[in-house]
Amino acid sequence: MRLFLKPTNTSADRPLRLALPKGRLTDRTLDALRAAGIPVPADLVHSRKLIHDVSAYTRGPLGVGLEILLLKNTDVPVYVEHGVAELGVAGTDVLYEAQAEVFRPYTFDFGSCDIAVAAPRGTEASTLRLRPWLRVATKYRRFARDFFAARSMTVEIIPLSGSVELAPALGMADAILDLVETGKTLEENGLEIMEVVGQTHVKLIANHTISTRTRRAIERLVELLDAGRETP
Amino acid sequence: MSLNTSLSQEVGLRRKVAQTALEIFAGWSYQEIDVPLLDHFDQLREVIDPNDANRTFRLIDREGNLLVLRSDVTPAIARIYAHQLQGVPVPLRVCYANKIVRLQRSFTREQFENYQIGVEMIGASGLAAELEVILVCLEVLSALGVRDFQVNVGHVGIYRRLLALSAVPTDPRRELTRAIANRDPAEVRAVAHRLGLRDNLTASFLALTRMAGGERQLAELERLHPHDAELQRACQHLREGAAVLEALGAADRFQIDLGLIDGPVYYTGLDFRVFAEGVGRALGGGGRYDDLIGSFGAPTPAVGFALKLDALMNVLYPHASAELSELDVPAGAAVRIDPNALAPSFQAALDRRRSGAVTRLVVRSGRAPKPLPR
């Protein structure tokens, strides 16, 4: 009976695709892969190519081939959710903004940082909260909207895509909501943290509609990454 | 707001897909049921998730009652059964292919309308009924020619039992559910830590997040809760189901996956989700809902599944044209209509139709009629 035909084998040997955000996170992800015993070459990212087949390095330890895609960070969840890439690496801030429905089987130990509301030095947090119409500049529109709505605060969200720290200095915003790594950029632009309102983490993400074979490969990858983390 | 429109080719293909499914349902002795387009909202609200309720479209009738446009077929059928069909011999097997309207997130747009095609088997408890609907579902996917489809089978009863053992309050419960559904062990650990859960419960919730589920996942839960009869029973139930599917040769088609806990809130036991590899979103899913009918009338066990026609169309005909396609009219189908002799012309057309032949009327102008488009 047709019902029990074997699945077609066309996809069985196809390499998995891993979507990485171009930039800092790519280097650190590749470092983590190497620490996990998957010897992907470090100079990968120095070429202009956006797709790299590293199957030769992954078939041994993972049992499957791997292609690495280099994308803009906000595009990573899009590729993974559509299933074009089975795997990706993305920050929870990006995932939240995209409301991405993806699995998150592993959390890397790099790239975690605070999400904070910051305002010009000397601002009292309590007076900030009492302003009837607070203007907040941010790259994280959805997070900001949900956060202030949960506190029943009326806030004007000013959407920016970079150099958010400039907005209060020029009087466009009363405060900013942004990622804070060292706090140095805040300090140099005359801002200080009023409140830490969340945290982001960098996750390995996976598409929902993956076969058992792919799930096993991902579980193996997660085990290797865990082991790599313990023996730096 | 963009509303979904589909023209010619896609409409025809949609109908073909729905028809194939309905024929298979009939082949398994399911009777088609018609579900009303409008329903009273108050009763529905009590049985569905508040988030799902928010995504429905509501309107007010002349008496001021709040009505809701059909947004999910299963609760509607449960209500029809509780109010109108109690007393018919069970198990009652019904099927449907119905349009539903609700706001749902889609890749490309805010989508409002979709078709659900599915079956409900009412008044039957036990594994046999669950396996029956899974097999019906697999046959539909096979018959439609969906490639590389897979069904993942879980059991929400296991998660519910773990929640009961750990007494998690409502709000963190939602976070925990989300974290498990996302297969996010770090987040599960964080929530469990905040709640101060016992180690074996934290380990149990973590076990649910395993990507490669299967027997190993069941064994781990049984090891963590050796004396909990309810958990042991649920694990054994899934194991038996898996053995039957394997014996039937479907081993390549399914996987036990206990992280499958984010289906409709009315699911109570075994549940499953079907998808085609690499498509992005599930094609549909199903499960047991033993308490749903009881919330409208006498308690009655039931199980069912629904497929999303949109998702199926995406897999089967990714390039189906949304444009008006050329009609496939056979040669010789044209019947000329002479404006000066309408009755005899139409008589010729009627004769042709009576014989069942495809006919296309062409009004004769002075010139020769244009050839049919190719």
Relevant terms:
heterodimer; A: 232 residues; alpha/beta; D-Maltodextrin-Binding Protein, domain 2; 5-stranded mixed beta sheet; 11 strands; elongated; B: 374 residues; alpha+beta; BirA Bifunctional Protein, domain 2; 3-stranded antiparallel beta sheet; 42% helix
Can you characterise this structure?
The complex is a heterodimer of chains A (232) and B (374). By secondary structure, chain A is an alpha/beta fold. Chain A is 33% helix and 28% strand. Chain A is elongated, with a radius of gyration of 21 Å. The termini of chain A are far apart. The two termini of chain B are 36 Å apart. Chain B folds into 3 domains: 1-147 and 279-325, BirA Bifunctional Protein, domain 2 (2-Layer Sandwich), CATH 3.30.930; 149-276, 2-Layer Sandwich (BirA Bifunctional Protein, domain 2), CATH 3.30.930.10; 330-374. With 374 residues, chain B is an alpha+beta fold. In chain B, helix 8 packs antiparallel against helix 9. Chains A and B meet through strand 5 and helix 9 of A and helix 5 and helix 8 of B.
Helix-strand string of chain A: EHEHEHEHEEHEHEHEHEEH
Helix fraction of chain B, binned, reads: 40-55%
Identify the strand order in the major beta sheet of chain B: 1-5-6-11-10-9-7-8
What oligomeric state is this? heterodimer
Query: Unreliable segments of chain B (pLDDT under 50, ≥5 consecutive)?
Result: none
Let me know the number of strands of chain A: 11
Q: What is the CATH third-level topology name of the largest domain in chain B?
A: BirA Bifunctional Protein, domain 2
CATH class of the largest domain in chain A: Alpha Beta
Give me the CATH fold name of the largest domain in chain A: D-Maltodextrin-Binding Protein, domain 2
Strand content of chain B: 15-25%
